[in-house]
């Protein structure tokens, strides 16, 4: 798990490096740190493409970045087919990358659907078992 301070540093860094993409009310980065480098790369690819298009590609403005059903969701305005493909690729890859640490992962099937590596899946299951015992439910 990551600290609020780590999240704030990541968000501030992204806002400083990509002010045009984050000029709207995007609501922060509602994903774990395992996907942060993927998001950084996606932002760099998008902005580089826009800058090289010399005005042909509309500026991307991010509306929302979140996890849903174990995958990255990246909602935005602007862009072109190339950017649509880059976003699709990142969203598709996220289903194979642990949201907590960035290691290879797989989608969970119990409870809240997440994409986790074996370590973080075991950690999640242990915490859930402990919570159930605390609340009087034996497995």
Question: Could you explain the architecture of this structure?
Answer:
With 139 residues, this protein is of the alpha+beta class. It has one domain (4-134). Helices cover 45% and strands 15% of the residues. It has helices at residues 4-17, 36-52, 81-94, 118-134; strands spanning 29-30, 61-68, 71-77, 106-107, 115-116. The strands form 2 sheets. It has a 3-stranded mixed beta sheet with strand order 1-2-3.
Q: What is the total domain count?
A: 1
Q: Whole-number radius of gyration?
A: 17 Å
Tally of individual helices:
4
Number of strands: 5
Order of helices and strands: HEHEEHEEH
Strand content: 15-25%
Shape: elongated
The average pLDDT score comes to 94
Annotation keywords:
139 residues; alpha+beta; three-stranded mixed beta sheet; two-stranded antiparallel sheet; 4 helices
Describe what is shown at a glance:
This protein has helices at residues 4-17, 36-52, 81-94, 118-134; strands spanning 29-30, 61-68, 71-77, 106-107, 115-116. It is of the alpha+beta class.
Describe the SSE topology.
Layout: H1 4-17, E1 29-30, H2 36-52, E2 61-68, E3 71-77, H3 81-94, E4 106-107, E5 115-116, H4 118-134
Helix pairs in contact: 2-3
